[in-house]
Inverse folding.
């Protein structure tokens, strides 16, 4: 009996420690804390419109984070997502406004362009073998340049039928927010359970072993870059519809915010770790943070430094926690 | 008496369960090349660590220089050149020779000209006619070894340990290295030369010391001893105990159609040449050879990782081409790597994820979603069958012991129900008990009808645990015999290139 109790207690302790080590749990607690405390400082915080704005503001980050999450699970990164997002918006806008293509065809063309960018990234990294940071850094510059060449400052006053895509309210929330929910949910389930997506964890865990064991590593990596391009393109199209215009500076610097959010959400740059749920919380947390700073009347100059501090704090906490846990485990062995 | 650079007197060093060195007396003279030979586990590495000051002996003393008693606590003037290169391949010879402590002026700027001049002088010492500013990549492997030696010598080392310097060199390259090594006599250095290739000792060394079971079996001038004497000193009298340990083999009626039949295959870089052999279902074929003999390349080629220049491979009577691992796996050939941590296991993932890795299709349902139930079933089967000690399928592989990790690795590959299982050095870094378990496991796998190829460099391991043995030396097959008709002595001669089966 006593043995049973000891075993039960040890099990509970272990569970508690694993929970405390899970990024989702920590992020969840922080988000809840903010939601509880903030209304004391600003009564508009909990208003439905503010929460709606908050979610809408995180939509394009969350969509791009899908691609980045998959890539980070494999230990790779795509820096060109911000440029791809701008490119997709511009192509859609040009198509419907100047090339006379009609709304649906323009959207398809925009998404195909985004997929093409992803394909090029994938071929450069996987087939030619250029380091992923360098090749996507290069395509980031190339695509951004092409966007400006194509559309200079951008394209405004897009057709109403297109804008509806980004401005229709369904059950109180704007359509892109629902799109984000659906996309995150679908990819989340796939990444957790589907055979094809699970292969990404093996590739990120040990590329050599994965190859030896017969996982088609090149194919999976290539397709993941294409997915990354596609989700960035989707973000670009929805963003253009939401504003009724496509700007050529859209998404500048967003790759860094997305990478911060995914890492905050539990992905590791060395690969093999992370899940969609954590990444989503990471995105929400980062946009929430900006929102809080706005609500507290903190100068926008402070947003980037605060993001930086949060990232460092989260990762340091993780590493220290892990060290502490290993030490505890070692002590128990003695 | 000759001037010595290091003298060992009565050195004894014990580890839990084993006396690694037992009252060792040893001396190394200035300008001599002193070969140190012995089987794996004879105590060579411990002796080396004592001489280089990494291990403090339990008894006895180490004296550096002539007679002057200096303790091991002082930094000893010893340098080791390892089997694997530690050079910076993109940098020049001079950069490498001076890596870490380049000559600088008062502004801490590197004095390049002095560096090059000094390197030139040292290269001349070894009759090496290359430019000091040539990058390491552009010189031959033997010359690279010399650069490593120069780097060590320049740091005022007095004792230089060469650990199997020729293991990664081709034969002609080795001769070149021996020629170059003669330059060492001009310096004030003594060399300890470790090698398993016995005949080269007679070409390069002045004296040879044989170690066995932690004891010195003798130190001789190479002119006063023959290779055969050397071999019997290394192996010693086989005790009756060892013979009893050899398992009684209950060989099932031999099924005379081979699963794998290899005819005269040659590696595209000639790491092995004209190899012919076959494996039968239910048997364990041991392939043994020294480092660089070509055994790992042979396995990697059969797994589609390296190219063939000639020869043909038949599997179950059908000719096959193996260009990618996927093809080999499809044909039922699998290869369990010797480096289980770097390219075998998914260390940060659970046992369950590891076991499921090669059979994701079989453990998933119609739409491609993985079924936890199916994965769990496979894992429990494997844990039970292989007797893996674990808290369950959700334990992360990293936290398992070496022996259990090796079992998981075998478990991964057996999911594919291979016809031919190649295992490369399966017991590296594993304790004695687990070693036994691994071999029992291999025997059970063979008994179930799989052909097992055991690749190893441990003579005893191969003799005790395989049915038939193939010996390789320098890329060539030197012998092929039933394991119970050969003893360690003979095997050692075959893998050192001293004997060869009639063709």
């Amino acid at each position: 009996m006593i043995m049973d109790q000891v075993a039960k207690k040890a099990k509970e302790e272990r569970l508690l420690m694993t929970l405390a080590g899970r990024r989702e749990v920590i992020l969840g607690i922080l988000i809840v804390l903010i939601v509880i405390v903030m209304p004391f400082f600003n009564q508009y915080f909990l208003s439905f419109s503010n929460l709606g704005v908050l979610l809408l503001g995180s939509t394009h980050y969350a969509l791009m984070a899908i691609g980045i999450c998959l890539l980070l699970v494999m230990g790779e990164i795509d820096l060109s997502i911000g440029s791809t997002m701008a490119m997709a918006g511009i192509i859609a806008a040009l198509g419907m406004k100047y090339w006379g293509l009609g709304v649906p065809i323009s959207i398809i063309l925009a998404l195909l362009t985004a997929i093409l960018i992803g394909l090029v990234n994938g071929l450069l990294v996987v087939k030619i073998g250029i380091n992923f940071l360098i090749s996507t850094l290069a395509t980031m510059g190339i695509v951004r340049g092409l966007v400006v060449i194509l559309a200079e400052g951008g394209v405004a006053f897009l057709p109403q039928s297109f804008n509806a895509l980004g401005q229709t309210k369904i059950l109180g929330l704007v359509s892109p927010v629902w799109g984000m929910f659906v996309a995150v949910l679908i990819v989340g389930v796939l990444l957790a359970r589907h055979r094809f997506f699970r292969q990404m964890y093996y590739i990120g865990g040990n590329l050599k072993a994965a190859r030896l064991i017969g996982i088609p590593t090149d194919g999976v990596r290539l397709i993941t870059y294409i997915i990354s391009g596609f989700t960035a393109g989707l973000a670009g199209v929805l963003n253009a519809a939401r504003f009724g215009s496509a700007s050529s500076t859209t998404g500048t610097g967003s790759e860094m915010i997305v990478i911060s959010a995914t890492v905050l959400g539990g992905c590791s740059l060395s690969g093999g770790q992370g899940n969609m749920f954590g990444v989503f919380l990471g995105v929400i947390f980062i946009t929430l943070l900006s929102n809080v700073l706005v609500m507290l009347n903190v100068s926008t100059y402070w947003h980037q430094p605060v993001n930086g501090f949060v990232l460092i704090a989260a990762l340091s906490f993780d590493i220290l926690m892990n060290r502490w846990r290993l030490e505890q485990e070692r002590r128990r062995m003695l | 008496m000759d001037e010595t650079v290091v003298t060992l007197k009565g050195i004894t060093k014990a580890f839990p369960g084993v006396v690694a060195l037992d009252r060792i007396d040893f001396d190394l003279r200035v300008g001599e090349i002193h070969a140190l030979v012995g089987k794996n586990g004879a105590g060579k590495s411990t002796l080396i660590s004592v001489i280089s000051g990494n291990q403090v002996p339990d008894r006895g003393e180490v004296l550096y220089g002539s007679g002057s008693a200096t303790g091991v606590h002082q930094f000893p003037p010893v340098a080791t050149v390892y089997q694997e290169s530690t050079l910076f391949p993109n940098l020049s010879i001079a950069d490498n020779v001076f890596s870490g402590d380049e000559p600088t002026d008062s502004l801490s700027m590197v004095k390049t000209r002095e560096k090059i001049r000094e390197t030139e002088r040292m290269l001349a010492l070894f009759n090496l006619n290359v430019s000091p500013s040539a990058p390491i990549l552009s010189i031959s492997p033997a010359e690279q070894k010399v650069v490593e030696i120069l780097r060590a010598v320049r740091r005022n080392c007095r004792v230089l340990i060469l650990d199997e310097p020729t293991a990664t060199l081709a034969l002609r390259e080795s001769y070149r290295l021996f020629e170059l090594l003669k330059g060492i006599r001009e310096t004030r250095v003594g060399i300890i030369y470790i090698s398993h290739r016995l005949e080269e000792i007679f070409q390069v060394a002045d004296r040879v010391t044989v170690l066995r079971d932690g004891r010195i079996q003798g130190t001789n001038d190479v002119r006063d001893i023959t290779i055969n004497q050397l071999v019997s000193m290394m192996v010693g009298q086989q005790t009756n105990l060892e013979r009893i340990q050899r398992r009684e083999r209950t060989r099932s009626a031999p099924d005379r159609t081979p699963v794998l039949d290899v005819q005269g295959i040659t590696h595209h870089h000639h790491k092995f040449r004209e190899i012919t052999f076959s494996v039968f279902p239910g048997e364990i074929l041991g392939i043994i050879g020294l480092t660089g003999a070509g055994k790992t390349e042979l396995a990697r080629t059969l797994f589609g990782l390296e190219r063939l220049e000639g020869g043909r491979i038949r599997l179950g009577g059908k000719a096959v081409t193996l260009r990618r691992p996927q093809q080999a796996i499809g044909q039922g050939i699998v290869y369990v790597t010797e480096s289980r941590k770097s390219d075998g296991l998914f260390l940060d993932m659970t046992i369950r994820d590891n076991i499921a890795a090669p059979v994701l299709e079989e453990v998933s349902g119609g739409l491609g979603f993985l079924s936890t139930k199916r994965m769990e079933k496979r894992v429990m089967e494997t844990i039970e069958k292989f007797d893996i000690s674990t808290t369950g399928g959700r334990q992360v592989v990293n936290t398992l012991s070496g022996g259990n990790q090796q079992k998981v690795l075998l478990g991964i590959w057996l999911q594919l129900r291979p016809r031919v299982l190649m295992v490369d050095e399966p017991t590296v870094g594993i304790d004695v008990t687990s070693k036994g378990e691994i071999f029992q496991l291999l025997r059970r796998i063979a008994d179930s009808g799989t052909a097992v190829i055991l690749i190893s460099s441990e003579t005893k391991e191969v003799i005790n645990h395989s049915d038939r043995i193939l010996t390789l030396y320098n890329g060539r097959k030197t012998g092929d015999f039933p394991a119970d008709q050969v003893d360690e002595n003979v095997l050692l001669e075959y893998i050192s290139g001293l004997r060869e089966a009639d063709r």
